Amino acid sequence: MTYTSTVLDAPDARELADFYRRLLGWETEQDEPDWVVLRDPSGTARLSFQTEPEYRRPVWPGERDGQLVMAHLDIEVDDLDAEVARAVAEGAGIADFQPQDHVRVCLDPAGHPFCLYVG
After folding, report:
1. Cα dist from 16 to 38, 62, 99, 103, whole Å
2. Would the CATH topology of 1-54 be identical to that of 56-119?
3. Which residue of 52, 57, 66, 101 shows the fewest CB atoms closer than 10 Å?
4. Could you tell me which residues are beta bridge partners of residue 51?
5. pLDDT at 35 (0 to 100)
């Protein structure tokens, strides 16, 4: 077995992939109408996106009857405040609930949470 990628569902795969392409500076490896694969510059990591017509935004933090978060991305940064500002400028939101002082939970345009942290 070989692990190849993490896949995020979204109402529009291309739109969400474009957000992460700008945020991470990754390259497009595959681009189809409902499927996009990004690759980091070293070629060792991939992040894929697929269009899911029945997609429901996850709720952060979890709520009893809401769509629960099944996974999130952790992204290490050098300057937390600067990278949060850049993520917001690219289209992310900042979650109202922040469980840790040294981590910022952000929400991508499709509502997936991702954490920015200083390593």
Report:
1. 11, 22, 25, 22
2. yes
3. 101
4. 10
5. 98
* Pairing, β 6-10 against β 73-77: unpaired
With contact defined as beta carbons under 8 Å apart, do 5 and 47 qualify? yes
Q: What single letter denotes the amino acid at residue 28?
A: T
Query: Tens digit of pLDDT for each residue in 51-93?
Result: 999 999 999 999 898 898 899 999 999 999 999 999 999 999 9
Q: Which residues contact 84 (CB under 8 A, 6 or more apart)?
A: 94, 104, 106, 116
Is-cis flag, bond preceding 61, omega within 30?
A: yes
Q: Return the domain boundaries, the chain.
A: 1-54, 56-119
Q: Under CATH, which architecture does the 1-54 domain have?
A: Roll (3.10)
Per-residue pLDDT reduced to its tens digit, 14-55: 999 999 999 999 999 999 999 999 999 999 999 999 999 999
